[in-house]
Design a protein that fits this description.
Layout: H1 10-18, H2 22-29, H3 39-59, E1 62-63, E2 71-72, H4 76-82, H5 85-116, H6 123-130, H7 138-148, H8 155-158, H9 160-163, H10 172-200, H11 204-212, H12 217-228, H13 230-246, H14 249-254, H15 266-276, H16 280-305
Antiparallel strand pairs: 1-2
Helix pairs in contact: 3-16, 4-16, 5-10, 5-13, 13-16, 15-16
Region (Disordered): 1-28
Domain ABC transmembrane type-1: 91-301
Protein name: Sugar ABC transporter permease
């Protein structure tokens, strides 16, 4: 018996070529897109990020009041800020507010994000309302809550049975609590959006298999959902840490570093040194410390969590 081999019609061949996915061509070549694709973004980053950072680093070794020519003073600015008790206090306050942001916002945004990824009734409407703070600037949010919490005509003045004299900005504990609350109100929707997208990407077959094995909703959450959200949790925490170390507008508008220096965080102290005291050398040194601290903490979180070992089969493919 002879077997007759027939070739596929030209139309079938062309349709198969048309159905080839972009990643097939990348895997066939075994290469990534060329550097030319990243060149515009690289130039933009170098011009508006690296160049100012280098200028700040140089200025941290200079004495300059904003007029005339900067004078080189070596390590004098660094010695002054490291011996400054207000600077040391501002570092601890910055770390405290950052830690409060991570501890409060992470579990809250995970729960809300997983809920928003479901199919509950009116979920879309409630999610849209909840995400409204995400559309506002930090300045607008701070002005809003400054008016709402004003001790003379705001909410505390009308609820003295709860807030006492109503001056939430008069003591360190209550002022820090206000800063943590306002930051949570504004930025939790952003991190909720991250977890919502990550939760929707979890394969439903995992939950179906868990239901067959008799796992309830809570066991599914702790044994399926949370492990699958690991990389999103690391990403969200890094954004929280960097944002907490560099926050500025909220303190400027709500407390102005008060009472006294009880809420003077490092970013606000940098502003006071540079733009109020006209000591741009010391201000640049503080700014460089914040950049280094945010970078180091982010790298430590990435390293400890194993996030740097994450790989994707779709890398470079859109």
């Amino acid at each position: 018996m002879t077997t007759q081999l027939t070739s596929a019609p030209p139309s079938a061949v062309s349709s198969r070529k048309a159905r080839r996915r972009p990643e097939d061509s990348y895997s066939a070549r075994g290469t990534r897109p060329g550097f030319g694709w990243a060149l515009p973004a690289t130039l933009f980053f170098a011009l508006f990020a690296l160049a100012p950072l280098v200028m700040v680093a140089v200025l941290s070794f200079m004495s300059w009041n904003g007029l005339g020519s900067p004078q080189f003073v070596g390590m004098d600015n660094w010695k002054r800020i490291l011996d400054d008790p207000v600077m040391i206090k501002s570092i601890w306050l910055t770390l405290l507010l950052t830690a409060l942001g991570v501890v409060i916002q992470t579990p809250l945004s995970i729960v809300l994000g997983v809920w928003a990824a479901g199919h509950q009734r009116n979920r879309a409407v409630l999610s849209a309302i909840y995400f409204i703070p995400l559309l506002l600037s930090s300045t607008a949010v701070s002005v809003l809550w400054r008016a709402l919490l004003d001790p003379n005509f705001g909410i505390p003045a009308r609820m003295t049975w709860l807030f006492g004299d109503g001056n939430l900005f008069g003591e360190q504990a209550s002022a820090i609590g206000v800063l943590a609350f306002v930051s949570t109100w504004q930025f939790t929707p952003f991190h909720t959006l991250i977890y919502q997208g990550a939760a929707r990407a979890i394969p439903p077959v995992l939950y179906q298999a868990a239901e067959i094995d008799g796992a309830g909703r809570y066991r599914q959450f702790f044994h399926i959902t949370l492990p699958q959200l690991r990389n999103s949790i690391v990403t969200s925490m890094i954004l929280m840490i960097v944002g907490g170390l560099t926050t500025f507008e909220t303190v400027l508008i709500l407390t102005q570093g008060g009472p006294g220096t009880d809420t003077t965080i490092s970013a606000y102290y940098m502003y006071q040194k540079a733009f109020k005291g006209f000591d741009f050398g010391a201000g640049s040194a503080i700014a460089l410390c914040l950049v280094v601290a945010a970078t180091v903490v982010s790298l430590v979180v990435v390293r400890v969590s194993g996030y740097d070992k994450m790989r994707s089969d779709m890398e470079g493919v859109s």
